[in-house]
Structure formats: structure tokens, C-alpha cells
Design a protein that fits this description.
The radius of gyration is 20 Å and the shape is globular. The mean pLDDT is about 95. By secondary structure, it is α/β, with parallel strands linked by helices. It folds into two domains: about 10-90 and about 240-330, Glutaredoxin (3-Layer(aba) Sandwich), CATH 3.40.30; about 105-235, Glutathione S-transferase Yfyf (Class Pi), Chain A, domain 2 (Up-down Bundle). About 40% of the residues lie in helices and about 15% in strands. The relative contact order is 0.16. The longest helix has 21 residues, at about 105-125. Strands 5-2-1-3-4-9-8-7-6-10 form a ten-stranded mixed β-sheet, with helices on both faces.
């Protein structure tokens, strides 16, 4: 592994399911990193005050001065910047029989199936009726409207049915005895993207019937096998807890990757109604859309945006994926 690799800093909290997705990617790739433990609820001054980033979803990951928001772009950046050619693991292992990695379809599977289909019914498994009012208020602000705990409880049977149907599909995929979902040599992004959702849902009370080994034996074996794999690899990885202010100082004083890697696609910018150098706001299309991050648009291609964001001690380069995020010119009055 390269001794000159930039520092990696992960902003996380323990009960975040998407945090565990990135934890597992870091374990699989054996990338050493530092952790900033943030609150499950706002405010998070470690991010908003020290880095100037208003994006409120967790996790966020920094590699040097480049800060990545959303797990899709986090996983892509980790794979690209810590490649197997330098001794790191990979989230795109070769197929046992084809000898190739189906990278494009696995990326689509992770986003369009695992997150778009499985995650919402898994959220319904949360014991909403037992949660404190402060949590409900915070998550209502996240989704952009009031959450009714009783209504969430009432939706649980329908959500269980959706999960049951999808677990039958996963059971079918694993029924030939393969170890990993895409019949790869090792687990990869496809496995990670389904595992973190099902393992999270499995931890909630009252889900025992969903994870009945007699109905989905291959799924349960796969879940247990993958959980053991990540636990063993995480124990070999280097992870250090640091304070938010120290993390921000380290990020701001680090170098950033050249913008040339992303470039600036004028045609895509025209379609979106923005130009290089514009002050823009970028936010998710779904949850967290009322918390845009403002900065100067410096790079844009078919996969990502990069903003220069002013932090108290200097600039931070903030990356967002194109899929699932919107960009618009900042119309706020200038002082």
C-alpha cells in the first residue's frame, strides 16, 4: 500500500445504517481512516461550522481536501483513489467464471435496487412508537414533513410483505450455493449494499419472522457469512477517533485532487442551467432537500459535481453525485 496516501476521515454515528455500509467498504478495501463521531440529531457543528457544509445526511467522507457526500460517490472515490494495484481490496471483485467485474450494473443495482427498493420498507421496521419526540422532530425536518409514528406502525405489515417478496428473490439468487450475490471471488459492492439494509432491519425487535432460516436459508447463511467477514476485516483495519475541529484543520490544510479528473461538461451544464464559476446550491432530491450546500461550481461531468465551499479557515472541495441530486443557481441576496 502507498505510504503517501491522503488521510481519510469519516464523519459517522453508530446507529446510521449508511455509516455501516461505508465502514464495510473501508474494511473490505483495508483503507486506514480516522473517525469523527457526530450526533444522530442536528446540530452537527463538526460539519456545518468547521467545514461550511450544510448537507445533513451521514456519512460524509474526506480524502485529503476532497469531501464526498452520499455513499454512492464515497464508494466510487474510495475504489478509484485506493486501487487494488496499490495493494488495497476492491468492491468490484472478478466473477468466478467470467473473470470480469460487472461494474456498471453493480453500481445500478446498489442504487436502484438496494437503496431505492429495500431501504424504505426497512425504515418501517424501526420501533417508531418507542422513539423520543426529539428524534421524530429531527427526522421530520429531514424528510420535509411531519412523521406520524402511529402511521408508520400501521404500515409495517405492508412493509414486511415487500421485504418478504424481495428476500425471496435474493434467496433465489443464492440458491445455487454461491457465496456472494454476483457469484464473485469475494464479496463486493452488491453484497455490501443489500447486507447493510437487511442486517440493520434484522436488529429491530419483532423481525424474527422475516429472518426465518427455514424460509430463506441461503439468505440467512449469506447474511451471517458476510457479517463475519466484515467483523474479521474491520478488526485488522486502522481506525482512530479524532475531534471535529482537528479533522477540519487537517482537511483544510490538505491538498485536493485536480479538477481535471472530473472536468467541466459544458453541454451538461447548459442542460442544468448553470455555468462554471456560478454560485450554486446542491441538495438531494429526496430526504434532506431543504439543506442545500452552497458553493462555487468548479467541475461537472455525467457522474458528479464539485463545489468550492468556504470554511472558516479556508476552502473545501465538496463532491456530490449527479444521480439523486439537483443543482440550481443561488438566488439568495448578497450582502
Amino acid at each position: 500500500m502507498s505510504s503517501e496516501a491522503p488521510a481519510v476521515i469519516l464523519y459517522r454515528y453508530d446507529t446510521s445504517p449508511f455509516t455501516h455500509k461505508v465502514d464495510n467498504v473501508l474494511a473490505l478495501k483495508n483503507v486506514p481512516y480516522q473517525r469523527v463521531q457526530v450526533s444522530p440529531l442536528l446540530p452537527r457543528p463538526e460539519i456545518t461550522e468547521y467545514l461550511g457544509i450544510n448537507y445533513r445526511r451521514i456519512p460524509i467522507l474526506a480524502i485529503g481536501n476532497d469531501v464526498y457526500c452520499d455513499t454512492s460517490i464515497i464508494t466510487a472515490a474510495l475504489e478509484r483513489r485506493f486501487p487494488p494495484s496499490q495493494g488495497y481490496g476492491t468492491i468490484f471483485p472478478k466473477g468466478k467464471h467470467s473473470g470480469k467485474a460487472d461494474t456498471g450494473m453493480i453500481k445500478a443495482f446498489a442504487k436502484s435496487y438496494a437503496e431505492a427498493v429495500l431501504f424504505a420498507p426497512a425504515v418501517t421496521m424501526i420501533p417508531w412508537q418507542a422513539l423520543p419526540e426529539a428524534f421524530i422532530k429531527d427526522r421530520s425536518a429531514l424528510v420535509g414533513g411531519p412523521i406520524d409514528p402511529q402511521a408508520m406502525v400501521a404500515r409495517r405489515p405492508a412493509a414486511e410483505s415487500i421485504l418478504t417478496t424481495n428476500m425471496a428473490l435474493i434467496e433465489e439468487q443464492l440458491s445455487d450455493g454461491r457465496d456472494w450475490l454476483f457469484d464473485t471471488e469475494l464479496p463486493g459492492l452488491a453484497d455490501i449494499s443489500v447486507h447493510f439494509i437487511l442486517a440493520w432491519a434484522r436488529g429491530f425487535p419483532g423481525t424474527e419472522a422475516l429472518f426465518d432460516k427455514s424460509k430463506n436459508p441461503h439468505v440467512i447463511q449469506w447474511l451471517d457469512r458476510l457479517s463475519k467477514f466484515f467483523k474479521e476485516h474491520a478488526s485488522q483495519n486502522i481506525s482512530i477517533v479524532i475531534k471535529g475541529e482537528d479533522a477540519a484543520n487537517k482537511i483544510i490544510s490538505s491538498t485536493h485532487e485536480s479538477y481535471d479528473f472530473v472536468g467541466f461538461d459544458e453541454r451538461e451544464a447548459s442542460r442544468l442551467g448553470v455555468s462554471a464559476g456560478d454560485t450554486v446550491q446542491i441538495a438531494p432530491e429526496d430526504t434532506g432537500r431543504n439543506y442545500p450546500t452552497t458553493g462555487t461550481l468548479v467541475a461537472l461531468n455525467r457522474e458528479e459535481f464539485i463545489l468550492e465551499v468556504s470554511a472558516p479557515q479556508g476552502l473545501v472541495r465538496v463532491h456530490f453525485p449527479r444521480v439523486g441530486f439537483t443543482v440550481k443557481a443561488d438566488k439568495s441576496p448578497k450582502l
